[in-house]
Structures are given as C-alpha cells and as structure tokens.
Design brief:
The chain is 37% helix and 26% strand. By secondary structure, it is an alpha+beta fold. The protein has a single domain, classed as YaeB-like fold. The protein has a 5-stranded mixed sheet, sandwiched between helices. The model has no long low-confidence stretch (mean pLDDT 96).
Length: 111
C-alpha cells in the first residue's frame, strides 16, 4: 500500500506546530501510521464531527487531539488540532472540524 499524503485543512498545520515538542512529535508519529494505512495507537471515532472522522489522542504533560479523515484514496485530511483542557471535547473544536469537513466534501463533490 502506498503512503497517503497529508492534506492540512484550515490552520490545522499551524495548530500542530504550536503543540509542545513532545506532543508535536507524537502527533506526527501517529499521523505517519495513518498515512501507512494503520490506525493510531490511541484513537476514537468522532461521529459528532462526521462519518469517518477519527480523533488521535496525544497524552503528554498536557492532552492534545487531532481530528482527521482517511476514507478517501487521495490523502489523509487533517481537519483540526487542539489542546484539550477539559474532559469534554469543546463544542468549538467540533464545530470547526464539522465546517472544514463540510467544505472538503463540497469541494470533492464539485470535481
């Protein structure tokens, strides 16, 4: 299986780059697994964002999350990345990821 490229939507790349070094390294490692067709080591589905969306859970001194969708053949689309400060996923993070997923699906439908 060929490795899929990453496609960073919105400010998701800048968001990951803003993670502390250990969290950034772990997020990159987990995204590398996804590019190879594997699942991250700690993940959960995010149907509240959309069908096929997965949350990578990064545990370091702080908690970080990366939402992505890999169900398309052309790329792994990174929707959003953020530091998680509460037990519940912030509604703003879900809303932003939903918007980016919707924009992606509309662009793909126009092709």
């Amino acid at each position: 299986m060929r490795e899929k490229p990453l496609a960073w939507l919105g400010a998701s790349l800048d968001d990951v780059r803003a993670f502390p070094e250990d969290a950034r390294r772990e997020a990159g490692h987990q995204l590398g697994r996804v590019q190879q067709g594997l699942l991250p080591t700690d993940w959960r589905p995010m149907p509240s964002v959309g069908a096929g969306v997965i949350e990578i859970r990064v545990h370091t001194r702080l908690e970080h999350r990366v939402f992505y969708v890999a169900k398309f053949d052309d790329a792994v689309y990174v929707l959003h990345a953020f530091e998680k400060r509460t037990r519940a996923t912030p509604s703003q993070a879900i809303d932003l990821a939903q918007k980016r997923l919707g924009d992606l699906l509309r662009r793909r439908a126009q092709k």
